[in-house]
Automatic annotation (TrEMBL):
Keyword Transferase set for record: yes
InterPro entries: P-loop_NTPase
Native source species: Actinomadura barringtoniae
Protein name as it appears in the record: Uridine kinase
Gene3D superfamilies per UniProt: P-loop containing nucleotide triphosphate hydrolases
UniProt keyword terms in alphabetical order: Kinase, Transferase
Any one GO MF annotation of this record: kinase activity
């Protein structure tokens, strides 16, 4: 595999162009996957305006709004990397409220968030009707390999060394989960688009 340097602006342009080129008679469900230091949320946010300029309705969703309640996430302690990997994300809620409504024949009615993990209570968000041909841009970590029904996946890849350096000390316990993800899912190969972001200011497209 080769890594071809690309500016952040050009990366956004190329991704938004690819998304806007898809048929406009159905919804497009896009995942921007990567650990927090890779800044998947920033890339997802940057895609919104270019897609709207190209005439697409856009709904932004963060997987962090679909974590399980603390009583379930932290049942076996606050720093178990396997529970973090397997149990933190409410996959059923994410599919039911976001991904299934944007499948062919779906209602197009999406709930942008379900659970506030900081306050540990329901967000009480309002449903959003996504126009035909609209694009869901969802960011989060450890999203691939779960069978979630995305139409396009972008993975932001970091070397283990870069990830360790950029992960705050109080979150270092999550590193074994990302190592497991690399070993079991191989997200660079699994994603439709893979981008090397050891330094998010200097991304590189992974090809081959």
């Amino acid at each position: 595999m080769r890594a071809l340097p690309i500016s952040p602006e050009h990366l956004v342009e190329e991704l938004s162009k690819r998304m806007a080129a898809t048929p406009d008679d159905r919804w497009l469900r896009v995942a921007v996957d990567g650990p927090p230091p890779a800044l998947p949320g920033e890339l997802a946010d940057a895609l919104v305006d270019p897609l709207r300029v190209r005439g697409r309705d856009v709904v932004r969703v963060a997987a962090a709004g679909f974590l399980r309640p603390a009583s379930l996430r932290l049942e076996f302690g606050r720093d178990d990397p396997d529970v973090f990997y397997d149990e933190w994300l409410d996959e059923g809620g994410l599919v039911r409220e976001v991904l299934a409504p944007l499948a062919p024949g779906g209602s197009g009615k999406v709930l942008p968030s379900l659970w506030d993990s900081v306050r540990d209570r329901a967000t009480r968000a309002q449903y959003r009707q996504v126009a035909e041909g609209g694009v869901l841009v969802l960011d989060g970590a450890l999203l691939l390999g779960r069978g979630l029904p995305f139409d396009l996946t972008v993975h932001l890849s970091m070397s283990s060394g870069a990830l360790a350096r950029r992960t705050p000390g109080d979150e270092a316990w999550t590193l074994p989960a990302y190592a497991r993800y690399e070993a079991e899912v191989r997200p660079v190969a699994a994603a439709d688009v893979a981008v090397k972001v050891d330094d998010p200011r200097h991304p590189a497209l992974i090809t081959g």
